[in-house]
Design brief:
about 120 residues, mainly alpha, Arc Repressor Mutant, subunit A, Diphtheria Toxin Repressor, domain 2, 2 domains, two-stranded antiparallel sheet, 6 helices, about 75% helix
């Protein structure tokens, strides 16, 4: 997995968890991504060093920089999955494939897909 994709996955996971729980802890990220505690701990430290998030009192908060990446990935993930479901792909496969596609398409391509399919979703 490319570093940028890893960053995007972590930030999207934290965003999704914050929508559900409001408070996000590293153990929540461990459980959500099904990664080991040490792996998540190292990744979160790097994301904090790169100003994507802040860890305070054992809680994780996305910075504006982190939110921008997270919400972009989340929008792509949801939109592409819903589109694939509308096209007849089963839900599980649609979400799995969406997770792969969301990282590799450009902003221009995603906007074109949204524009061309806005009446389907």
């Amino acid at each position: 997995m490319k570093k940028q994709e890893t960053i995007q996955n972590y930030l999207e996971a934290i965003h999704i968890l914050s929508l559900k729980n409001k408070k996000v802890r590293s153990i929540d990220v461990v459980n959500y991504l099904n990664f080991s505690r040490p792996t998540v701990s190292v990744a979160l430290k790097e994301l904090e060093d790169d100003a994507y998030l802040i860890i305070e009192d054992n809680l994780i908060y996305l910075t504006e920089k982190g939110k921008a990446v997270a919400t972009t990935m989340y929008e792509r993930h949801e939109y592409i999955a819903k589109l694939l479901i509308k096209l007849g792909v089963n839900e599980k496969t649609a979400y799995e494939d969406s997770c792969l596609i969301e990282h590799d398409i450009s902003k221009e391509t995603f906007e074109a897909i949204k524009k061309a399919t806005k009446n389907l979703i």
